Amino acid sequence: MNILVISEFFQSILQSKLCMENIKIA
């Protein structure tokens, strides 16, 4: 598997987690 693809996938998961945290706090 391509490292770029993995990092991109990981970043999207991290971003969605941050969004969830923001929604919880708000």
From TrEMBL:
Domain of life where this protein originates: Eukaryota
Task: Report the protein name in the record.
Answer: Uncharacterized protein
Organism equals Anguilla anguilla
